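Annex B.
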Amino acid sequence: MRLELSGITKAFGALVANDHIDLTVEPGEIHCLLGENGAGKSTLMNILYGLLRADSGEIRLDGVAQHFTGPGDAMRAGIGMVHQHFMLIPVFTVAENLMLGHEQTKAGFLDLPAARARVQEISARFGFDLDPDALVEDLPVGVQQRVEIVKALSRDAKVLVFDEPTAVLTPQETDELIAIMRQLRDAGTAIVFITHKLREVREVADRITVVRLGKVVGEAEPTASNAELASLMVGRSVELTVQRAPSTGGDVGLQVAGLSVLDAAGQIVVDDVDFVVRRGEILAIAGVQGNGQTELTEALLGLQDDVRGTITLDGRDITGASVRQVLDAGVGFVPEDRQEDALVAEFSIAENLMLDRSDGAPFVKGGAVQRRDLESFATATVKEFDVRAQGIDTHVGRLSGGNQQKVVLARELSRDLRLFVAAQPTRGLDVGSIEFVHERIVATRDEGVPVIVISTELDEVAALADRIAVMYRGRIVGIVPGDTSRDVLGLMMAGELPDDVRTAA
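Nucleoside ABC transporter ATP-binding protein: predicted structure tokens.
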């Protein structure tokens, strides 16, 4: 089935998310839609899938204009979508999830045997090896994604959209997904692959369309270099390689021993973790999201209630310390969700820059904000960190994601730090902003500060890490050198430490 999008335009108030976008996808083709986060890719696909209605433009399938009022219309027309966040019911079986929204009955009862047979038929065709009676919550993430694909194919999808499908996959699972996409392409399916990961685009694409600020800015061949693709995405040349000297490996700054964290239900989410971070090194904590990294980070910052073991910073035990005490001890922190946990959208840039120091000098004296001191500091800091805004009084909520992250970095790195913790520091950022963030993290390490980077992006881990600790189900599988291969890291992310792998103390 041939897909054509013509002049698709969609605005949300003054923001034009899609601006007269044209896109054609042929049967038996993998067409990559590449662009930074916020470029308008997902909006365009949500229009295609009937989740949003375009303000203007037309969708055609095999030359016939379509008018979708919801996802049901799109599915009936032959369009399927595999979402970044799976649309599955964890306590249902694979077959039951297949039936959702398309329930078939026989003699007044749900026809589960037919659903089971459909799962087995599609699984056999593509080698998925899915058990129709398995509970989704018991399946690994990569297998859950196969369930999503089977759901779409069970409804005879001729056009299949993958929206950032590798965000929660290990490298091995990503390779398996790419193999599946090629199978689908060879069977005649038209595939739209949405991503901002350059390596995956070059590996799987037949054609590449680049979107920037809601507009199509060009097409590229899969043979294009990463630098060429990044330049199209951002609109300027980008340094994709982090320039850094080897770590000097100084004295131990942070020591974590026997650390365990229990959640509100009493379940162990971080299990007996040990590691050290030396001054002047970056320890990256890698793993698929949801394996205890968030809870470990929160424990370091005093944000978890039930913590066992010890956390020692510069010889001082800070286990169980309050967040205020941890910050005052010299810990800088970039949370993984900047909008929820790092910034106050209604506050100005200047006000956000003093959030860590709102209880005393240099910005507060006698209970009053020292406006002149704050304005002088904010003006200089905004310039140093290249925050693009009309002025220091601009509300942070009006800034782009990249500029918001620069405000967070500026606030945290402008203090005298004994430890810097950055969780998912480039999530949602374009390659230009990633370049800037990485440079600042490396510069902090080079000043002799111990740095912890928590990231699910292996490219980021490889670019920054002097050593890498990989977490799986709350435990550290192993700590390895920063130059460890993606294949080995992928195995570790699945819980396996190969016998021949060199560990790094």
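The two ends are 55 Å apart (CA to CA). The domain at 239-330+416-505 is CATH 3.40.50.300 (Rossmann fold). Further annotation is deferred to the next reporting cycle.
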